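Worked Example 4.2. Consider the chain below.
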Amino acid sequence: MYANRVYANRVYAMRKPPSRSTDRASRTLRLEDGGAAHAESLPATHDAHGTTHDAGVDRSDARSAARRATPLAAVSGVAHVLARGLEGAALVEALAQVIGPLVGAELALVATVHDGDISTLAGNRQLDDPRTAAVLRTIMNLAALRRQHLVAGDPFALVPGTFTTPASLGWSSLAVIPAVHHAGQTTAVVLVASRAADAFDAEDVVLLDTIAEQMLVGLDRAQLVGRLGEWSNGLEALLAFSASVHGQRAPAILVNEMVEHAARFLKADGGRGGLVTVDADGTLAMESTAYLRQGTWRPVARRWRTREGIPGRVLDHEFAYLVPDYPNDPAADPELVDEGLVRHALGVPLRDTAREVIGFLELHRDAERAAFSWDDAAFLESLADTTAMAIENSRLVTALEAKNDEVRQLFARHAERLEEERQHVARELHDETGQALVGVKLALQSLTRVMPPGNPAVTAPLDELRLQVNQATARLRQLARRLRPPTLDQHGLAAALQQLAHDTEQRSGAAVRVTIDAQAGERWPLQETAVFRVVQEALTNAVGHGQATHVTVEVAVTAHTVAVRVHDDGRGFAVDKATDGLGLRGIRERVHQLGGAVRLESTPGHGTTVAVDLPLR
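Applying the procedure from the previous section yields the following structure tokens:
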């Protein structure tokens, strides 16, 4: 072994390149444009032994100039990269490209360090051998951990702190320089390699150390910008999460939205969520309808019984399930394992206020990311608890809406039955009682004709009785129309409102103007009846309580809604201080049960406006 090593050194010495200082001078003159131009303009001279010299410049002076110029070029080159404002991997790759030529290295690697380990690594050339790349990464990790320079100039000498030689990696010289923060923490590592032995001397190490310290500023800035971006994304995700929680969405949709937000929070590459279902035999199971991958949902319907997969285990244990090695975990999904994308997983239960499991959230990470931690599990559980509360509220709201729909249907049926009963009573009053009074009136007229004339003691009471019968008949007909105007059924809403306006004018003396914007066509008996009752009650309030002298009634019918506006010039009142009477309360209840809306506007001394919008479908 020793003989081979000596032989290799001898061979290397025979093929040794020009001196280090001469090579450095040539590199420096190439980097400094002014120096290169000046060097090319000087003629060459030869001494008596045939040795070439640059005219006007001594060899030692050239080496000194090169030593002085190289750090300046390095600082300038690195500063130019840092001034570009690159971030993350782009910054690391740009630094690797510029560092290599500065020290005459064929290979230059730059890596950032996060939590004591290499996080981002880039180089000026591709490392085709995975084993070599892994060893170089290990050496850089060692330099970061020790916060010390690791330099090996002998191809067969061990790299300090390792059992590896540069020659075993295909190189003759290595230099690894950590960039140590002022707080004593390694932020980045620079590795350079050359196929020439003793390629990196003390001045090169100092130069690389200077470059590393210079890099700290740019890396700190990039890290700060990255963290600001993460904080901004986290804040956006938090706001979106809050909006989703407070939005009225179906539970299944809400669960999928929570998976998206949780994936953004915890930097997950995929995931899914689902809810508990109950089989016909009472067995509980978890169901999911889709799978999230890189921000895109794909429909994948899955079902897990107790202890099946991560959801089934979460359902059984009611506790978070952490998977650092997904492909080899018994709870892994075979389909995801075959795809080879998931390396780490985390599942947590959704528990309601009674701490009963109602669903699950599951997140996945690829091999490039770190495994989930129990801190991640605790954070995801807090999101899950909030999600479960939102799901429970959504279900309560859904149940309440179903009850409201049921109540509205019952009220609509009740209102329909009530109108039918009013119609029946009005018909009975008009047909039966009205006809009876007409008969009494005719009998009185016949009795008056058969009575002997000249007997006022008998004819006067008969005339008074006949007058009372006429008045009772008129009031009865008016009452029948108020109960259920036959015009509404026979001729429609417009004719019924015109008749209502005329009756109001005759009864109160107020001027009532009716405007109807509607096309003849399909009838809406329930809505027409509601509009008629609203206008009827509004007119009663306007002339009875508001003492109005002018009232306008406007009705507009579209394909989907009917809008009613009743305005009067009465006394008005303060809406915020008044309480609804029976009339307004009846309007609100009738309109609300039909899915409509009521607006009441009034000011003391400036009249009142009642506006109603009713859906037709």
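Residues 374-450 form the longest helix (77 residues). The two ends are 96 Å apart (CA to CA). Compare this with Example 4.1 before moving on.
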